[in-house]
Amino acid sequence: xxxxxxxxxxxxxxxxxxxxxxxxxxxxxxxxxxxxxxxxxxxxxxxxxxxxxxxxxxxxxxxxxxxxxxxxxxxxxxxxxxxxxxxxxxxxxxxxxxxxxxxxxxxxxxxxxxxxxxxxxxxxxxxxxxxxxxxxxxxxxxxxxxxxxxxxxxxxxxxxxxxxxxxxxxxxxxxxxxxxxxxxxxxxxxxxxxxxxxxxxxxxxxxxxxxxxxxxxxxxxxx
Amino acid sequence: xxxxxxxxxxxxxxxxxxxxxxxxxxxxxxxxxxxxxxxxxxxxxxxxxxxxxxxxxxxxxxxxxxxxxxxxxxxxxxxxxxxxxxxxxxxxxxxxxxxxxxxxxxxxxxxxx
Lengths: 223, 113
Hints:
The complex is a heterodimer of chains A (223) and B (113).
Chain A: H1 4-8, H2 10-23, H3 28-38, H4 41-52, H5 57-67, H6 70-82, H7 87-95, H8 99-111, H9 117-145, H10 158-167, H11 174-189, H12 198-222
Helix pairs in contact in A: 2-3, 2-4, 2-9, 3-9, 4-5, 4-10, 6-8, 8-9, 11-12
Chain B: H1 9-34, H2 41-48, H3 50-64, H4 75-91, H5 94-112
Helix pairs in contact in B: 4-5
């Protein structure tokens, strides 16, 4: 499977979340609750980073939730395929809706127009639930054994490096790079705003900038 | 990193449950409630940019004014940031970018330390 490396990233990131969460004073149970309730790696790292900076609680929740706005897009993308499932099935589908569900699920469904709802649900739960299981397991391993790491490692900077490692492979088009630039530059310029709220303003500006540049490029190619 | 950054457990659980609920509602939104209606194309296009719109902003202050140095710009950390981003763009591979960034940070702290 071409997406196997992408799927396997779950393991180091889950373990890293466990290590950093316990290093910040969480118990193994609390780190596990985080991974089971939220199951969204980037937003969990975002919450850790903001807790470490001592940001106000509402800003932590809003910013970390903003990292997950793409989940609404995944929800839209899967609705034509799974929208006719029963309510409790859709409740479960939603819980397991992660990046891999979108990338693996939507791609597979588009390749298999002959599949009915039952086949699609079987594929979805058969492929996605083991990935989420790996996420819980990796968090548990990291949280339980993370304290064995040598002291003096620059743990404070592992989160920024992991974040950049997650996002930089996505920066292939001009629109994506402009969005990233507006986000970073805008947050630094707006750092004077109270309660780290400049980040939210810069993120909104970056989303608009990305969409505008993409629209412009499309027009240029079309015309 | 302060070892007891999370002193208030009530706040921690508020964050876990608040973030979990908000994220769940985003996941459930269309599948559960809005049915077969879709969002305007421009909104969908904006949503696709959320990772690059939020994460660089989240990292930038920590990269330029790291807490570990008391907010003073640290060449080792800045070089590690640049290397991580360049390797990520070039290889399109998160794992390589992370390894490159971590090794650069380790070497930089040792050499410039």
